[in-house]
Amino acid sequence: MEGLERALGRRGLVNSGIGVRNLYNRFVSEAESSDRRDLWLPVGVALAAALIALAAWGLLVAERRDHLLGSSRATASELRDTLEAALAEHADTVARLAALREGLGSEPESGRLAALQREVGSLLDDLLRGRARGYALSLRWDGIEVYARGTPSSDRWQRWWRVEETLALPGGLRWQLVQWPTAELASARLTPIPHYLLAAGLLLSLVLALLVYQLRVIARQSRFLAASNRALERRGAELETAVGERTEALQDAISELQAFNDSVSHDLRSPLGAILNFTSILEEDFRGRLLDEEGLALLARIRRSATRATALLEDLLRLSRTRRAALRFERIDMNDLVEETFAQLRAAQDDGEVDWVVAPLPDAVGDRTLLGDVLANLLGNALKYSRGCEKRCIRVSGRRDEDECVYEVRDNGQGFDMRFAGKLFGLFERLHSDGEIEGTGIGLAMVKRIVRRHGGRVFAEGEPGRGACFGFALPLRELP
Amino acid sequence: MSAAAILLVEDDRDEVDVALRALRRAGVAAPVEVVRDGVEALEALGIEDGAASGPAPRVVFLDLKMPRVDGWEVLRRMREHPRTASVPVVVVSSSDRREDIERSYALGANSFLLKRLDRHGPGGYLAEAARYWLELNRTPREGG
Questions:
Q1: From the centroid of its chain, how far is CA A233?
Q2: pLDDT at B122
């Protein structure tokens, strides 16, 4: 395995900066590809098996052949002895035949040869009739055939089975006895089984080779996969660590940013407050003295800008608080909270007469500060947007449904176009320009965020000129 | 120890000027002593040097975020010292975070005001509070 890993390292697969997916793909394609080295062993095994099969076949065939040859030789020997003995008894017949033979020469005329053959045949037929069954015999006398019996097998692969004996005849004559197996004998004694076995053995060796090859491939694949697993695991661990570190760094950065944001926002309050205070003082103390109408108008514009900046700041701080602050759940008397919030609003901006109706509201379970912010925003909006009305009317109502408490704030002010209802709760989205109605575009986004943190939902509907209804629903909740 | 009825503990010069003007305009005649941080406040209250002399102020307006010694520390020390233990303390802050309010009351503040500009005018909220604590409220010292 070490060698494999070194090899992988050499190819730069483990330590390169390639991504996890690439790493995996490369391993898979490596594992699936075949390697020439995979062939050596199977080929070797195939050759060995084939050689063994061949050797076995060879041995079987040789053994068989020796056996058959041995028995043929025995037959031929026996035949020779018999013939020698028989011919020894007919010495004068043999001498007569010898004279005949001599007279024929090396290329005998067919008629005289036939006569000779008849003579020999009559001499030997009985003797040879029952003997050496299955063999074809041929007796030669100085090169010419004087006796023949049976048809030798024509199979030239059986030449090894030919046996030759020399008969010693009276008078110093010699005859050649050639013995062949007939086709019948051959087919009876030579079984094809060894050949079948050889074929089977060769087939087997092929199969074995394939098996070995496949096993090698599998072994190689599993080695690669194991290595790839390890590499991927290592990669995974590296990535996890990196992700962990990155997340921590990000969280630290976010906390820092938030802290910076809060601290800056907080610190901006004082200077903005000072601008508002001193412009008020200027207006109060120097009206008519150093400041004429024009001066007062300019002052008013400074005041408006500073007010807007302060409002934005306050909203940003509140928005930040909704994100950061841990929710402190408690049972809240909503009527109480609404009265308190409204009182604070009126103290801050006494806008004149308001017909103010608060229906009995179901208790809510939530964070009092944050829900107070929600109500401050909704009620504040209701006040703002109904400012132009002759008789302003704000109704706060609520009900407890099966799984939620719903609260609604209705006003009879400007209302809004329902086509833009989707944008209402978006951050910094406004449906009215700042000249018409002051606002920062943060309030409703903050409301949505707070309500969402409580697991609730916000909704709104309105009609231009006919007022609006803003509301939120909180899920029913048990206090822990 | 001064004879000022109102002790204003505030490090921002602008806030001080606005407060003084508001008190003047509201007709609050009581003398006002202004200190810039917690250390001066403790000295003015006679807590720091240990030697008590003269009456304690009738109301203290206390800013929270100050250098060196902050408002909470002053409050804590005031409540520990018998001379100043029952002097009304009005915490004045630019932030009304719930934690700040709770902590102030826990340390013994009587009131918590958020710096704001409303229909009472610049510094008007503080003048309103001053009038209440000086004219309406009774402290043990003033009891009959």
A1: 15
A2: 92
Say if B93 is an interface residue toward chain A (CB within 8 Å): no
pLDDT (tens digit, 9 = 90+) per residue, A322-348?
777 778 889 999 999 999 998 888 777
CA distance B14 to chain A (A): 6
Q: Which residues of A47-70 are buried (b: 16+ CB within 10 A; e: fewer)?
A: eebbeebeeebeebeeeeeeebee
The single-letter DSSP state of residue A388 is T
A352 and B CB contact within 8 Å: no
Q: Which residue in the block uniquely carries the two structure tokens 């207006």?
A: A283
Residues A356-400: tens digit of each pLDDT: 899 999 999 999 989 999 999 999 888 888 887 778 889 999 999
Alpha helices in chain B (DSSP H): 13-25, 38-44, 71-80, 98-106, 124-131
DSSP string, B119-134: TTEETHHHHHHHHIII
Residue B129: its chain A contacts at CB < 8 A?
none
Query: Model ipTM?
Result: 0.85
- CA Rg value for chain B: 14
CA separation, residue A213 to residues A3, A37, A48, B2, B88 (Å): 21, 10, 14, 106, 97
Note whether A284 contacts B: Cβ–Cβ < 8 A: yes
